Amino acid sequence: MGDLLKSNPIFTKLGFDESNQWILYADGMQNFFNWMANNITESNIPADAEIYEENNLKERAQWFDGEELEDMLESLEERHPGILSYTDKDLNNMKNEIRELEDMERSYMQLNEKLEKTKANLNREISDLELSVHDTENRLEQATCSAMEKAKELQEIQKNNLDLNAELRSCFTETQMPPLFIHEMPLDEYFTKSDLFQQYLKMYMKTNLKAKVQ
Asked: pLDDT averaged over consecutive 10-residue blocks of the chain (214 residues)?
């Protein structure tokens, strides 16, 4: 009694078990179930996911059958010749190709992201270098101006020294006319001329006598 049930798992999948297997052998039904056992396989029974997808398509009015389905398949074949003759192997190859393309796209995006980061870092380094060069140029310009000012001051000092040397030399080599006695000179003027004379004398001794003046 249980041979048909045990020999074909399709009946178990349809909900038959030992408690109701007598139906398989009922008069008028046995030929039908024998035919079913020899012609129906698990691939002919939709899976739960397929049933769910069918119901979902029907709810969205995207389920086609009859002439409408034939028209849709004909249109699909025109847009993609040979698509209806694809086997499971062809579909698996296409899926693998799609995965490879996705991996390539992901690698490209990662590489592009690294390039963008490198570009940003280079731009930042270039900006820092430009700021450093600009700062160096400013400091160089300031140093040049300072050097020119010091050179100008040195020229003025040298000119003043020459003038002082000339005046000091004239004090020793030329007679002051008319001579002015000390008692005829105001005290402020006397002290000023005395200080000036001391400076002239020190300058003269440094320049001409090479003496060390304290």
From this structure: 57 64 66 72 73 82 81 85 84 91 94 94 93 91 90 86 74 56 62 76 70 46
Task: Look at residues 117, 20, 183 and name the one whose alpha carbon lies nearest to residue 5.
Answer: 20
Structure tokens at 203: 């300058």
How many Å apart are CA 63 and CA 68, to the nearest integer?
A: 10
Residues 76, 96, single domain; the answer is no
Alpha helices, DSSP H only, in 14-87? 30-39, 48-59, 66-79
Quote the radius of gyration of the chain (alpha carbons, Å): 57
Answer yes or no: is 165 within a domain.
Answer: no
Terminal CA-to-CA distance of the chain, rounded, Å?
141
| C-alpha to C-alpha distances, 79 to 75, 82, 83, 98, nearest whole angstrom | 6, 10, 9, 19
Q: pTM value? A: 0.38
60 phi/psi in degrees, rounded to 5: -95, 10
The long-range contacts involving 202-208, CB below 8 angstroms and separated by at least 24 positions, are 203/161, 203/164, 203/165, 203/168, 204/165, 204/168, 204/169, 204/172, 207/165
Q: Of 129, 158, 187, which residue constitutes the final position of a domain?
A: 158
The pLDDT score that the predictor gives to residue 212 is 47
What SS3 state is found at 87? Answer: coil
